[in-house]
Amino acid sequence: MPQIVCTEYERDEAAMQLAIVVGNVVASRKEESLKGIKMMIVQKVNAQNTPTGAPFIAIDATTQAGVGDLVFIESGREAALGIPGWFNPADQAILGIVDQVHVEAVAH
What is the value of pTM for the model shown? Predict the structure, then answer.
């Protein structure tokens, strides 16, 4: 798993966030615009790479994410824009698989 290297940072809740993939979802029926789109269970991580909060479902716009991957996610309308056929009900999306993270200290 990629390491998150940072000392201190500020998080904007509206920004993309990091999460770890902890499972997948198999659905025999889905809304038409989500057919063929993988759904994964993810859990946000903090600066120490520790899972925080409850796991939730996100569509996988990368089509490549797997259990154990560190990913960046987006929520709201922006999540739906990550897959073809942008008019869909997605509220959380995996938009990238993270190889490495490095954050410089933020002055207060």
Answer: 0.80
